[in-house]
Each structure stands twice: as C-alpha cells, then as structure tokens.
Design a protein that fits this description.
This protein has 148 residues and is of the alpha/beta class. 31% of the residues lie in helices and 22% in strands.
C-alpha cells in the first residue's frame, strides 16, 4: 500500500469490528447492513458531523459547509448534477460517498466518470460503496479498489 491515507482507512475503519458509537450511526435501510456500518464508521473516524444525505424530501438550499455528501439510492444519471450542485459546500477534508456504484453497468459507468473528475484527488472503490476525496494534501490523483 503506497498511500498512508488508504492504509489508515483500512486499519482503522475497514478492519474495525468494534461497536459503532450510536451517535455516529447513519441509517441507510436500502443498502446492506455491512455498508451502512461502513458509512457510519467512516463518518465517526473522520469526525464528519455535518452530513447531507440525498435524496431527501426537501431541496437542500444553504451555504453551510458540509463534511460529507452521501448519495444513497440516487439514480446514476443524477450523480454528476448533485456533485456539481453541492461540491462547493464540502470542506477540504470532506468526502462524497455513493452507494451502489456497481449495481449495473449504468452505475459503473457513472462511477467511472465521476471518479475521473479533475476535482477528485482520490477515489476508493469498495464495490458497494464509492468514496471520493478532495484533500489538498493529495498531490497526485489516485484510484484504489479495496475488497470489503
């Protein structure tokens, strides 16, 4: 493993089997529990407190910075539009998580396109979940595929 960030993610999030702090649990009833737990562990480990989870009933209209944008059960044709609409709200350490990135070929194609976006500094493919990062300290664009 060449990335300290990814190594840390594997060691402290993916391999962590301990209990999840109840305050950090993010409910996603439409995805497998293992991925719901993974999302919660990511949010807890990186201290993501302000999370915008889409879709939601009302349109989110604010200029408040967010730590994480979670796209769950969103049609892949909408991913790029939501990325463009909410990217400016993400903090430098923030992330975008997308569920179901390999549900079918349409999802895989949309994931590949989004992870290739020039603003994305690191993409991590965990099969059922994709993680996009934008940290300024990542000097080169990197893509990882992790078994989860």
């Amino acid at each position: 493993m060449h990335s300290p960030f990814v190594y840390d993610l594997i060691e402290h999030v993916l391999l962590d089997k301990g209990p999840i702090d109840r305050a950090a649990i993010i409910e996603c009833p439409d995805i497998p529990l293992s991925y719901e737990n993974l999302i919660s562990r990511i949010a807890a480990y990186y201290g993501y407190k302000i999370i915008l989870s889409l879709p939601m009933g009302n349109e989110y209209a604010t200029n408040q910075e967010i730590d994480m944008l979670l796209l769950k059960s969103v049609k892949p044709t909408e991913w790029a539009g939501l990325f463009n609409k909410y990217f400016h709200l993400l903090k430098n350490e923030g992330a975008i998580l997308i569920t179901g990135i390999h549900t079918n070929t349409e999802h895989t194609k949309a994931w590949t396109t989004l992870s290739a976006n020039e603003q994305v500094k690191m993409s991590i493919d965990m099969y059922g979940l994709g993680l996009l990062l934008f940290r300024n300290e990542f000097k080169e664009k990197q893509h990882f595929i992790l078994k989860y």
